[in-house]
Structures are given as C-alpha cells and as structure tokens.
Amino acid sequence: MPHEQRWRNWAGNQTATGFTAAHPQGIAEIAAAVRAAAAAGQRVRPIGSGHSFTAIGRPEDVQLVLDRHAGLVEVMSTGLVTVQAGMPLHRLTAELAARGWALTNLGDIDRQTVAGALSTGTHGTGAAFGGLATQVRACELVLADGAVLRCSPGEHAEIFSAARVGLGALGVLSEVTLQAVPAFALRAEEGSASLTGLLADLDAFLSSTDHVEFYWFPHTDRCLTKRNTRVPVGEQDPLPGWRAVWDDEVVANGALAAVVAAGRVAPPLVRPLARASARALSPRTYTDAAHRVFVSRRRVRFREMEYAVPRAAAAEVLGELRRAVDRSDWRVPLPVEVRLAAADDVPLSTASGRDTAYVAVHVPARSEPGPYFAAFEAIAGAVGGRPHWGKLHGLDAAALADRYPRFAEFTALRDRLDPTGVFSNAHLDRVLGPARTRTGGR
Fold first, then answer.
1. CB neighbour class for 213 (10 Å; exposed up to 12, middle 13-18, buried from 19)
2. Which residues contact 237 (CB under 8 A, 6 or more apart)?
3. pTM for this prediction
4. CA–CA separation, 269 vs 323, rounded Å?
C-alpha cells in the first residue's frame, strides 16, 4: 500500500517530504496508480535511482517507484531486448553479457534505471555513437488517463520519437525495447596529457579511437585521458584484482576524497592537493568486457553541471573555462570531464541535430556551486550549449526553446498527452512551461 515518506537524491541536494509513494507491480497497477492520482487532482512523478542533480524527479503528490517492475521480459535472437522500465542498467548489462549481448554504448555510471537514464538523456562517449536513446526500438507508455500506448517507428511514431528522451513528462515508461549488439570487449588505454597539448588539436584526439574522454584537473595543466577501442571478446586481459582496487579505490576515489575533505577544513590546501592528485594517476592498459570498462566507480558524491556544446566549439569552451579558473580565487577539488557523441534525431536529446562535445564540472556534494557553475554556464551558453536534463542548470523554457529547434514540437505533444500536467512538477513547469490547462489554454 502507498505510504508517506521522505526522499532525497543521490547527491543529497534535492529532498521531498509529505508525498505518497507507490510501488506498483505490473502494467495494470501502474495504470491504476496514475488513474487514481489524476482523478484526485494529484501530480505523479516516476522516479528511478535518484541520480539526477536537478529536481526533475522531485515528487509533489505521488511518487511512482518501479522497483517492483524491473524484470527482463525478452531477449530475441536479433538482439532486441525488452525490459521493464525499473530495471537498473547494471542488472541489464549483466543479463545481456550472460547471453552473449551488450549495449553498444554506456555512460560511466550504471546505477540508473533504464527509464530514468533514458528520460534524462544519459549518454556515454564516442564520435560515432549516440546516447542511450538511440538504442531504443520501441517503448510502452502509461498516459495521464491510465491508457497504455505502445510506440515504435511504425506505431505512434511522433510519440516514440519524443519519448526516447521524455523527461517523464509524456507518461510513465513501463517497458523499453533496446537493440543490443554481440558482446565485445574494450582495450582501455589510460594516461596523462597536458590540457595545452590536447586543446591544440582537440578534435583529432576526441576521434582518435572508438570511445574517448578525458578529465582536466583545474589549477593544473594535467589531464587523465581514456581511450577505449572495441575488440573481440576473446582478447580480454583484465587488470589484476589488486591493481583495480589500488587504482580505482585507493588512488582515484581515495585521492579525490582526501582533496574534498581537506578543502572543507583547510581550503588553501585544495590547489596543491589537486596538483598532487593529478600526478598520482599512473598509465595503464587493459582489456575487459565492454560494460566493465565503460563504467567507473563513484564513491565521492558531488554536484554536477554538464553542457552539450557543438563539437567544433569544445576547445574554445575549455580554454575559456581554464582562463576563468585561473583568474578567480575559486578552489576546485574535482576534475572537469570531457566526452563526445554523434548527432541524433531525438527532439530533446542534447545531441539533437549536431555532433556534440560534453563538458561537465563538479563540486563536492556538500558545497554550493556558486560562481564557478555560473561562469561555466555563461561560457557554454555563448556557443549555444544545452544543459543535461538531469544536471544542474539555470535555464527556463524560454531559454531552452532557443537551444532546441524541436522544443515546440515536444511541448505541443506534452500538452496533447497530458493537458492538465499530471506528470509535471515545479521543475518541469520551469523547463517546459506549465501544461496547457494550467495557463488557461494557448
């Protein structure tokens, strides 16, 4: 039975109390919960793992938790895999690996649910690869009146197109069909480089192999680079267990935790410790199953802002950000992450219609982003940057409409499917505009 409870997201910067949480099992129970809330004039927010930093998942009246609707439905011989929307990505990749399949690309965190990751536009990196939404081949939505709608390129195509990155604003994703590929491995090459050297020919570096990313440590010129090349599964040569634990837990997470802790008690230590942690990361090369290489352990909690900028503007954005940091008295303990994605055709995808570079900035979870995030947002905005839907930003519907050519197409569809805003909350009212009947029509 539903019961009142408290909620907070992974980073702890979004909280809610006084709402009702429902844990439906099966499509009939999801539809019944939506119908009951709509009849009572209540708003419904589906929630995944709470990894978004924005208030996109913050419940106001009813929170729909799909932890009991999280099973594997079918894996076909063609690689089409259908899952219930509450399944976490790490469970899905394990199920696929056991059957000889894999997702063609992943982000660096796999704790999100399938529905949550899709709804916020989760992506990985790779010049020739799109985000998770580009792997979707069909989906099932529970609409605001409780009706169940099956969507694909051949069935309700305009809804399918938008629902692949739907922000949870069109309906509740209940099932998703993804196109998997035969299992593959990644040869990971990690090393050190200078930001100055990378910016001299950034585009060439970012497209130098299948999946490329790097981390720049502010207050230094040093970067950690990651280049992952797709190879057959039989070529696996994983790191020894002790080396993985030492590198990922002791050096990477441990060093970052030390910098964050020192910054709280003695802020002047942040800059020298950042330089020391940048030097501590040693080169390594290994080969392992793709889903184990794509994903990184995240023990240090943080707040994040990420902007998708035109690929050609990435070097300019990073150069401006470095100059802003150098001119300031900020103490930035966490690295800046840079990734890449191919253009896609999803209306609210951050890569919609253009090849895209992603630049993400971070502060510790207990810190206020302050002028650091504000300065970065202005730099990214100057080149038409689009904020990640699950990460902090200050834009509203009017500003976002200028960044997305198909924004009006999405909001018109939202108004048709959910005219009273059953699936909205204050955050979605800001970034999409209020639903039609809440503003007296249009």
1. buried
2. 286, 287, 288
3. 0.93
4. 21
Per cent of the chain over pLDDT 90 is 83
Question: How many whole angstroms separate alpha carbon 309 and alpha carbon 206?
Answer: 14
- Tens digits of residue pLDDT in 243-257: 554 455 545 556 666
Instruction: Give the pLDDT confidence of 73-88 residue by residue, as tens digits.
Output: 999 999 999 999 999 9
The torsion angles phi and psi of 110, rounded to 5 degrees, stand at -125, 25
What six digits make up the tokens of 141? 């939505």
Amino acid at the residue 63: Q
The DSSP-derived string for 17-62 is EEEEEE---SHHHHHHHHHHHHHTT--EEEE-S---SSSTT--SSE
Partners of 305 in the beta sheet?
A: 361
CA 337 – CA 301 distance, rounded (Å): 15
Q: Are 52 and 390 spatial neighbours (Cβ–Cβ below 8 Å)?
A: yes
SS (H, E, C) 191-230: EEEEHHHHHHCHHHHHCCCCEEEEEECCCCCEEEEEEEEE
